[in-house]
């Protein structure tokens, strides 16, 4: 593996992970009022889970195991197990006998804050890739 491209691989993995995060947030926001899903319960908020992507190699000179960071990887999407909100709306078709409706555990303010963070992280990875590409182009120009 050519070490010169490691930064591009790391940024690309960040782009992929942040895209999953943005898609998950968009799903949460679009289902913020879904009171009944396939299982009969309200929509449950989902969260993208990331993990560092490491490779382990044995150094031929020292015999020690060395880890190299290859970026981040999305390992899945988990449901948020926090409680549903109870809203008083006796006219709602899903209201219980007391007039309360179970609403999804999605807080739009938190989702917007998470969306802004994910978008900024995505932009930072794009800027990093563009800077790396620019450095490669300058190096090629020097070699002419």
Q: What is the fold's blueprint, element by element?
A:
Elements: H1 6-30, E1 46-58, E2 65-79, E3 85-88, E4 100-103, H2 108-142
Antiparallel strand pairs: 1-2, 3-4
Helix pairs in contact: 1-2
Unreliable stretches: none
* SSE succession: HEEEEH
Q: DSSP strand (E) fraction?
A: 25-35%
Main sheet? 2 strands, antiparallel
Number of helices: 2
What percent of residues adopt helix (DSSP H or I)? 40-55%
Would you write up a description of this structure?
β1 and β2 form a beta hairpin. The model has no long low-confidence stretch (mean pLDDT 89). The strands form two sheets. Strands 1-2 form a two-stranded antiparallel sheet. Strands 3-4 form a two-stranded antiparallel sheet. It has two helices and four strands.
